Amino acid sequence: MKKDRQRILSPAAAMGIILLGAAVILAFFNPLLAAAVAMFYVVLCIAASFFPESGFFLPVISRGNTGKKYVALTFDDGPAEPTTRQILDLLDKHSMKATFFVAGVKSAAHPGIIKEIVSRGHSIGNHSFNHNPFLMLKSRDAIFREIALTQEILMKMEIITKAFRPPVGIVNPKLGELLRGLDMFCVTFSLRAGDAGNRFVKNISGKILSKIKKDDIILLHDVPPQSKDEEKIFLQEIDNLLSGITAEGFSVIPLSRLIGREIFWRQKEQ
User: Fold this and answer.
1) Three-state secondary structure of 45-112
2) Global pTM?
């Protein structure tokens, strides 16, 4: 039991015990300093929500551990017509595999695309049901429903995913316990183009390739850009990116291989 408590105690909880305990003691001698210490902890918790790679609240996988020039591709917010299928074609063209972190509501609307993602050898992750960017501000029950409902939808397609990526990569203190209860783990990313969900698609490839490093988990999106002209630009940028990764001497490998953990499996395989 003691060992289990040590495993569950997060850096946030440990620091909270230390800082808030210190604030209580300081309150007897210097109330203003005590308030400053307590406020520092509050600010630290808020800031840590936007830097999940710190692992402050829960264990978070944000990059690989191979030490080699390997990277993994991940696509968020889909599936969507026709963008996801177009990306699948480009991945086939370059003989690369990716992980698609899907929204439950879109998965329910496009089960055929989910099946195609899997049949083409790619992986599926959970990206919440509605992809609410403010999900981590909601109650524990609301967060649980968003994750669990997406799991249920995927299970109806004989898919069990272990990986959860929170919307916009923000975490909170409630998430670790929820994921443990669902036997899941949190995966974020180490490299993105700042495309704001394909609202800004110009030079996606250049932004990624100028910063790419060993073991990067690359964040992209498989939702349609805002116009037909931008759709052409977007697809060309993805094509350029996939070519450019190889030209830079990197290899794209499945996310499961990059992080050393299974992302998903099909129920028939159990």
Assistant:
1) HHHHHCCHHHCCCCCEECECCCCCCEEEEEEECCCCCCHHHHHHHHHHHCCCCEEEEECHHHHHHCHH
2) 0.85
